[in-house]
Specification:
Oligomer: single chain
Shape: elongated
Number of helices: 23
Radius of gyration: 30 Å
Low-confidence stretches: 720-732
Structural class: alpha+beta
Helix content: 55-70%
Strand content: 5-15%
Largest sheet: 5 strands, antiparallel
Number of strands: 11
């Protein structure tokens, strides 16, 4: 591996103009494709194999008139204090408003609240249901503006009018807060290298890589249905790992230059050694993201594959484009120093012990105490994770001053919390002797169940073999009572030979949570198993991969604790701009976060422990190898972690709830994993394990191919006097 990458680095250095031309050509092609081929993104998703999805598929097949997958909006009217909607003036305002909405673009039907008896008991509040002939993601801004304009006369006439529903979800443009992460990355790179040239090249290559990934995914929206959050998440991850990978190779290149090598040779050795770590670090991230296919939720698989694609681009950029631009810069990466900054060789030694060496010395002198403090501290942070509640975002988590949130609260106050989470009951009466009797019996049976407020009369398709009922629970959408009601309806015996199923947003939430919970263990088994084998191949050890996996579990537990404390409990919500928007954690977040965090955690494991192994293979005693390897890589790993935290933090203020929670979770996870797990717990455990950390059974050592990630073969090639690694080293 190291020898091949050494040759690749030198080739890119010598053919630098060709390599740069190819990558810039790919970027321009991506930009052209994104501008000419892109299509709309989607906010919808399906959950194959669940009752909710089967019910919707049945309605699409037999009852398309119901518009089960069409967008809906609710217009909520409220009379002023002391008045009623039945007052002639208020009634006239309501009807004129609905007439204007009915003529708005894409509107299929408007249900009058007076005709539907959708008026609260006190007579002050009522709502109109608006159905669209397109899906929620296809509702145009013009159609939404038409509704907003239509309600203004009623508001001017004294009524309070608010609206919500999936048709009214505004697709806000992604804010520019991501540039904060890039700005922080630039500052960290300047501090690390002390040179504008050295700091700019990793940033430039990362931006090109992220740009190619983003434009390719955007162009793909013209051919396949891609979720609105997918390109954003792909850019988030691609940009972060691109900067990190380029940073590690750049750091090693400067180290080799400072050792007196010529630029071409320095590039070759940097790519051969640090590049090997980049390849295996990238592979762990790709395995973790690509493994999301086992969850069998298409949009989640799509997100994982898109992000994995950007990681592959990041690795390829670091191994080819960066050596090419280094060839153009030559020794200038050592010059252009900024006054007041240390700069120089971030992996080299100075007369005064570095902070990394001092910290490694402290940890290795007191490994037991350090290990206990770190583990107990992470355990305390993880405590809120025990209260984790999962759900899907709805109008209740919108901004407190938004019309969607106000409409939600008006409905809850006027009709009860269950009106914001209706259940759709689909009665498949194709095999029933009396379809209408079976549907009526089903409605009567549901009315007798606990926590049921309203059951609408059955409505049939033209063929008369499928009926649709709407059930309004007494409790809110995310409560245990509503979940129990869904289960009770599904467990009820068939009546009259009809098959009954439950769907709707609330049922979808329950089903997706159950499916994700069931998929978590197989998913973890897949990615942990594959990554364990990969790390065993890299480090030629059994205990090092095991330690890496246990450290990852600590990181995940603490990360979930922080996410729950902020987004569910509301701690620091005002500081993060989400005050009043707390609630259950998005259902798919745990699985997605586990995958990404695992990949990124292994990144730092590979970068940090590879240097320790390199020192050990080259003859250092176990504790000395830990201290020397840590001191060589600590400054660069610290810089990489700060950059990644900054990039992820820039997405916390995103308008996409999923992106916002993932951005926060990843920022916290990287900080915990890099500074607590990898830079504190890892050296402590490695010290306690001593030489046994590198134990590998002799039979397994013979079976595993030698990937030479530490570059030992390269070192022997350049210096024939260096002895070969003893065959029994791995088994000692």
């Amino acid at each position: 591996m190291a020898t091949y990458l050494y040759r690749l680095g030198r080739f890119a250095f010598r053919r630098r103009r060709l390599v740069v031309f190819v990558w810039l050509g790919l970027l321009l092609a991506g930009i052209a494709g994104a501008a000419t081929l892109s299509g709309p993104t989607s906010n919808g998703f399906s959950i194959p194999g669940t009752e909710s999805q089967r019910a919707l598929d049945l309605l699409d097949e037999r009852f398309p008139q119901a518009g089960a997958d069409g967008a809906t909006a609710r217009i909520v009217f409220q009379a002023p204090p002391g008045g009623k909607l039945a007052d002639p003036a208020s009634t006239a305002l309501v009807k004129s408003t609905l007439d204007r909405i009915e003529s708005a673009p894409q509107v299929a039907k408007v249900v009058d609240p007076f005709a539907a008896k959708a008026i609260s008991a006190d007579g002050r509040t009522g709502y109109a249901q608006v159905s669209y002939d397109v899906t929620a993601q296809e509702v145009t801004p013009e159609a939404q503006e038409a509704v907003a304009d239509a309600v203004e006369p009623a508001r001017a006439g004294g009524l309070t009018v608010e609206f919500g529903g999936d048709a009214m979800q505004v697709q806000e443009p992604q804010s520019a807060t991501e540039v904060i992460g890039i700005g922080v990355a630039a500052v960290v790179l300047l501090i690390t290298f002390g040179s504008l040239v050295a700091a700019g090249l990793p940033l430039l290559s990362a931006i090109i890589g992220a740009g190619i990934g983003a434009t390719a995914i955007t162009a793909a929206t013209g051919f396949i249905d891609i979720g609105s959050g997918t390109p954003i998440l792909a850019v988030m991850i691609g940009l972060a790992v691109s900067i990190d990978y380029a940073l590690f190779i750049m750091s090693r290149y400067r180290h080799e230059l400072s050792s007196g090598l010529e630029p071409e040779e320095a590039v070759g050795r940097a790519v051969g050694t640090a590049g090997s770590a980049v390849v295996f670090a990238g592979l762990t991230v790709v395995i973790a993201l690509g493994g999301l296919f086992v969850v069998d939720i298409p949009f989640l698989t799509q997100m994982g594959l898109a992000a994995a694609f950007t990681v592959v681009i990041a690795v390829a950029i670091a191994l080819t484009l960066l050596p090419a631009v280094l060839g153009m810069a030559g020794r200038r990466v050592l010059g252009g120093k900024i006054p007041g900054l240390r700069g120089g060789d971030p992996e080299g030694e100075s007369k005064k012990p570095s902070a990394g060496r001092r910290w490694a010395g402290f940890v290795t002198r007191r490994p037991v105490a350090v290990l206990l403090v770190a583990v107990v501290g992470l355990g305390v942070v993880a405590i809120p994770a025990a209260s984790l509640e999962l759900g899907l975002p709805d109008d209740s988590t919108s901004a407190p001053d938004s019309t969607q949130r106000k409409a939600y609260e008006m409905l809850s106050d006027g009709f009860g919390p269950g009106f914001n989470g209706p259940l759709m009951i689909v009665v498949d009466a194709a095999g029933a002797a009396d379809p209408k009797g079976a549907a009526a019996a089903t409605a009567d049976a549901v009315r007798k169940l606990p926590d049921v407020a309203v059951v609408t009369p059955p409505s049939f398709n033209p063929q008369g073999d499928t009926a649709l009922l709407t059930v309004i629970p007494s409790s809110g959408p995310g409560t245990a009572e509503t979940k129990a009601l869904v289960g009770a309806i599904r467990d009820a015996p068939q009546l009259g030979g009809a098959e009954v199923s439950v769907t709707g947003a609330t049922a979808f939430n329950i089903d997706i949570s159950a499916k994700l919970s069931g998929a978590l263990l197989p998913y973890l088994s897949l990615i942990v198993g594959l990554a364990f084998l990969l790390l065993m191949l890299v480090f030629r050890s059994v205990l090092v991969p095991l330690k890496a996996t246990l450290g990852f579990l600590l990181t995940v537990a603490a990360t979930f604790g922080a996410v729950v404390a902020v987004f569910q409990w509301g701690w620091l919500a005002g500081l993060l701009g989400i005050e009043g928007q707390t609630g259950p954690i998005i259902s798919m977040l745990p699985v997605f976060l586990v995958g990404i965090v695992f990949g990124l955690a292994m990144d730092y494991q590979v970068f940090l422990v590879t240097r320790m192994r390199e020192e050990h293979v080259h003859g250092a005693a176990p504790t000395r190898a830990v201290v020397d390897g840590f001191s060589h890589s600590a400054r660069v790993v610290t810089a990489a972690a700060v950059i990644m935290v900054a990039v992820f933090s820039g997405f916390i203020l995103s308008s996409e709830t999923l992106v916002r929670e993932i951005g926060f979770g990843l920022a916290v996870a990287v900080a915990i994993d890099a500074f607590v797990v990898r830079m504190t717990i890892v050296p402590a455990v490695m010290t306690l394990l001593g030489r046994s950390a590198w134990w590998l059974p002799r039979w397994l050592d013979r079976l595993l191919p030698d990937v030479d990630v530490e570059g030992e073969k390269l070192r022997r090639t350049f210096d024939p006097e260096v002895p070969a690694r003893e065959p029994e080293l791995a088994s000692r």
